[in-house]
Structures are given as structure tokens and as C-alpha cells.
Design goal:
5-stranded parallel β-sheet, 149 residues, 5 strands, Rossmann fold, aromatic amino acid biosynthesis, alpha/beta, single chain, EC 4.2.1.10, 5 helices, 3-dehydroquinate dehydratase, DHquinase_II_sf, lyase
Length: 149
């Protein structure tokens, strides 16, 4: 079986669809997961969300141990505060896409300095929920290139 893609979601993303829809849209996290699974085209995918920093770190460690094909992570508020998540992600050797539903660079200054970007292969921001399937497709392509090299 192929190595899975991990799609990890941080705090408050369980509230998608109802939380500030003018910023995050009305798409629910369950709908985002369905979009990701469709984009994966049958490739194994671990889709998870937590409001707890330690769980996200544990899932990154799991992705490392399982030699995951790649990680798509929307760390949400942890993007700007969690050195612990950054340190975990730095250990992951595969493609890593940092994803944000909104364009964080058009928002308040506090959202302009991502810790995760320091280790991400690429960053997707501002595509709304549609950024998720784009990120999954990118991970599949990057993983295929890596495997062929």
C-alpha cells in the first residue's frame, strides 16, 4: 500500500462553515475532507483536526514514522505561535505544504509571520477551501518526483 498523505488541521477549524464565514467561507470541515479524498484519487489519506498542540505534534511524528508521502498542514493560530510544531515539522523529510484558507498577508499584522513557512516546501493561502485539494494534488506530484529521483 502507498504511503499516506497527512492533512492536519489546527485549532478552531472544526468550526468551519459557521466561524466567520466572511473570512473562511461556508464550507464545513467534513466537506473539506471529502474534497481532499477526491483529490487524492484513492491514495491513502489521513485527515485530522485538533485544538490541541500536542496532538498535532504526535500526528507529525506518526507521519515521520510511517514515511508519509507528504503533509498538508493548516496549523491555524499555531502557525504564528508554535515552535514545538515547527520543530516537529522540521524532522519530516518529505513534501510539506502549509495551507491557509484566507490570505493571511491581507489580514492583521499578527498573521504575517508564519513559523511553519520556515520549513514548508510551499505555502498556499487565500484560495478558500479549494486550497485543500490543490495542496493534496501538489503533494502527490512532489512525492512522485521525489520517488522518481
Amino acid at each position: 500500500m502507498s504511503a499516506p498523505i497527512y492533512v492536519l488541521n489546527g485549532p478552531n477549524l472544526n468550526r468551519l462553515g459557521t466561524r466567520e464565514p466572511e473570512i473562511y467561507g461556508r464550507t464545513t470541515l467534513a466537506e473539506v475532507e471529502a474534497m481532499c479524498r477526491e483529490a487524492a484519487g484513492g491514495h491513502p489519506l489521513e485527515f485530522r483536526q485538533s485544538n490541541r498542540e500536542y496532538e498535532i505534534i504526535d500526528w507529525v511524528h506518526e507521519a515521520i514514522d510511517r514515511e508519509a508521502a507528504g503533509i498538508v498542514i493548516n496549523p491555524a493560530a499555531f502557525t504564528f505561535t508554535s515552535i514545538a510544531i515547527l520543530d516537529a515539522l522540521k524532522m519530516f523529510p518529505g513534501p510539506l505544504i502549509e495551507l491557509h484558507i484566507s490570505n493571511v498577508h491581507r489580514r492583521e499584522e499578527i498573521y504575517h509571520r508564519s513559523l511553519v513557512s520556515r520549513t514548508a516546501t510551499a505555502v498556499i493561502a487565500g484560495l478558500g477551501a479549494q486550497g485543500y485539494p490543490v495542496a493534496v494534488g501538489a503533494v502527490l506530484e512532489l512525492a512522485a518526483r521525489r520517488k522518481a529521483a
